[in-house]
## 1
Amino acid sequence: MTDGGSGFRCLDCDERFEFGTATHRCPDCRGILDPTYDEETLAAFHDRLFGGRGAGDGIPDGDGGRTDAGLGRFAPVLPFDREQLVTLDEGGTSLLECHDVGDEADVDVFLKDEGRNGTGGIQDREMALAVTAARVHGASDVALPTTGNGGQAAAAYAGRAGLASHSFVPSRTTFATKAMINVHGGDMNVVGGRYPDAREAFEEVIDDEAWHSLAPFETPYRHEACKTLAYELVASLGAPPDAVVHPTGHGHGLVGLDKGFRELARTGAIDRRPRLYAAQPAGCAPLVAAWKNGEDTPQPVDHPDTICGALEIPAPAGGSLALDVLDATRESRRARRAAWASAAGTNSPNGGSSTPARPWSSSTRRRPTAKPTCSGAT
């Protein structure tokens, strides 16, 4: 484990654990575990990245070529040393300015192109850490339920680590996505129906197999890897963006982005945290509905229906955490609910959903003369 890591903190009961004493959920309450680091390590690493230089000079963002790629460049603020990491040169993806969209909205809009990762998605970051943990803990097999993209990444990184992988995938997942799981050497179990059916099939067998679970928010490492997006955005832009819009299924990306920005703010590397927005498809938007209704926990979508198959997650594993993140960076959902109810003369606002999400992460910086315009799960 990395020298600066101080262990895990349970996000539910606040109990602390050393890295070697827990592998998945909290041993005491089954809450979600989160890696922690000592303040000196965070401050020293942030100073090395940004101290005495422009914020964009600290780490490569990939725009000029994927030099020093892989999460190893963030190893001092990750649970594993660079030498331990299973990597396929993930991260360091391009940040592309979208002039036409920005001109139309009168804001500066940038797209973080996670499609440049090896298997084509942000899940490469997640699996770099999660599969590393599995290997460190002596696993021979990893397994997860997935809408497809996570299965591709798990198969690729497990193969890199010399492990076997087992993905439980709904039958409605696209042929190309399913094929790539096999191309990367993964075992695939196609389950009739949608993601909840695949999750149920996974849960029926995982306790009887000597498999290391990579299921969403079962391992502390998938959301941890996503915090590197925050570091890269600050490095590329020279400052934190005003807002980040993230296409959201289970919530790994939102929770990770928030953690990265909080770490940077805690040491003074940035002077503010961006607003975070969850973008979900109209036919499956449990977080959006919960936010608009002022709920603490998203209610499962009974009949999800969207062509955005990767985001068809009717009951997000990190739903409550994602809502907490939105609360922390924007106006409280309870305050919004009260305001809407007052304006409408009723005690309950209408539910709603966002516009369909696009398969990328984006960040916005307001132009000096721009109107106060933003977009997302509002």
Note: The CA atoms of residues 23 and 137 lie 8 Å apart.
## 2
Amino acid sequence: MLFFIHRNSSLLEISHHKNVFIINKNLVMTTIDIILITYNQSQYVQQALDGIMIQKFQDKVSIRIIVADDCSTDGTIDIIKSYESIIPYSFIYLPGEKNMGHVKNYKRAFDASSADYIAIIEGDDWWCSPNHLQSRLDYMQEHLECALCSMFPYFYDETERKFEVWNLSDNVTSPTWQITIDEEIAENKIVNLSSCMFRSKFIHQLPNKLFEINTILDWPMYICLAELGLLCILEGSTSVYRVLDNGIWSGNKCSEQDELSLEMLSTAEKILEGRHKKAFSVARKFLTKNSVSKSRNRKIIEFLLKPFVCVEKNLLKVKKIYKSM
């Protein structure tokens, strides 16, 4: 008896003929929830919406836009609503009576999602390629071990008014980089949430403790996801990460970024309750020896790129720390 199951299957119709079962793939439609995270970003959100509007797909895909606005007071929501007649997807607005902060806003957005996949776009970033979603969808449908799929974004320094470009092929020979939990603990390699697509079932398996933290969500969440599946980075760039002087990460001084990095690492370690102890110990030593504040003259954009420009060199340092323990 044989079963043939189409890779996109979420709804199944099975026909039986001579002990062979075939699923009718024409009835299958993949679902994606685009989570738009905003807070007082009226200056930039139009560009984020334009990036959603240009997306193209090879097959039929059901799309919803979940708007998680954290009580903006600058007209951000009005701009989003003006796109309802332009973008051919349904808009879901999450209610909010008071500002809840970065982490809680993400939590309620994830809870509102019921799709197969979740894509993030923060209101000050944007997708610059019509294949942004399709490229990640293709990979994740072929690789069920993948919890997250991303690419390195372009960086746009809002103050300097300039782009910075980095490609995976500069440092990694394979067109795909599959990251394990020990590698992600050693050094955060997922640059920007707006470049990510997630497999929803893994997002919904994240521990509740993760969303009770008082630090930046990104790195602790990536580490928790890496217990559930591989984190995959594809070659190329299809999105832009806007670096702002008042950003929740880039708006901090180098010494403050050192503290934030250690805080995020310690937070993830507590959430995982003692698992991966050696990896966390190595990461702490690495962060202490390679702190941002030791390079006072470096521009913020150079720091943001540092982990990736020096991938091989940093991995060698981490291996040396492992051997010394």
Note: The CA atoms of residues 16 and 22 lie 7 Å apart.
## 3
Amino acid sequence: MKILQTARWFFPHTGGGTIRVYNIAKNLVKLGHEVHLLVHHPDSIEQCNVNHTDEKIKLQEEYDGIHVYRLPYYPPNFLYWSISIPLMTRKAYQIIRQQKIDVVLSDNPPYLVGTASYLASRMASIPMVINVHDVWGATHYSSIQYKVGAMLEQFCTRKIGHFVTVSEGLRTVLSDSFQIPTENIGVAANAIDLSRFNINQNQVDQILARYLQFNLKKSEKYVVFVGIMRQWAGVQYLIEAFGKVIQVHPELKLLLVGGGGDKEWFIELAQKFQIMDHVIFTDALPYIDIPAFISLGTIACAPFPSTRVTDQKQLMSPLKVLEYMAAGKAVIASHVGGMENYITDHQTGLMVPPGDVDALANKIIYLVEKPELIKKLGDNAREFVQNEKFGWLASAKVVEKMLLESQNHFLNSNLENISK
């Protein structure tokens, strides 16, 4: 198949959305398909977690066998929401015609991408599948953006017949909310590339040598968090909890890896709780370097808060937790919807109630005082994710199946219309 994949996020943005888009595309290529990926310009997106380098962002390039196209830069504001749809529609249609695309795979939300992709696919008379990453309604969007996004979500889900989601919980939400038959929704869970975490100490040292400004030391004990610096990731609870932790274990350091719109507020919070001497903030880092930073952690945390997304039963498919586990780290994670699919308490990690600062602090203190348990949890976690069902190739095969089904359904529908 020749596939046009559309998304909002891609490198140099770093985050869960980009990681999913990249790995699905890369593994579709591995399965023998030709993938063309159309994305927004990263600097046009508000609150984007971008790893900026001196290299100019290219509007067209080949990345690991994926043909990547980016929209031109426009300043990030609400007006961009309205102009991005016709911009992406036009570019998507152009690619479809020039490359003779067979099917569109659109990653959402927000449904700016889905709406543009649907319009382009209709203009070109080819089928489309929506890859739904999570439920619509991230907390950083304004009320107007939320309402517009909800309208576009309704529009797209009523027009499209085949979907892919990250979890069984999200499949249930989609089916119940939009009356979509469950057999038309494939579940392609977030996954892990274990090879990225098979790194030796020499490789770690070489990577960290490029980041001397952070003054990282192998002799230190770090509690590590990797992800976007936003409140929806729960970093504020980890910072507050760490203020309690260092009263008992002042030798510990908190390593916060990532960039994002709330970073300055988190720095102010760290100052408020008087932990700045114990915390290291990085910026957004290249995807390829992340395993080296995780490797420094004695404990790795995923302090997700209670939100409309995380409270949904069986909904989450947390990439950061899978990466921590692949690195063989002892994980402390919030007990949010779907986390139980990965963390079995005291077996593959520890869980705490979301937003409970005292519980989080106590679990960190408890764990750091039990080195044998740290090793057991890390070893069990690594063994758990070695199952091939956690590989991206398995998820890409689910996407491939839904793309083929959408093609067959589209062809049969056209034949029925002709016969009439």
Note: The first helix runs from residue 16 to 30.
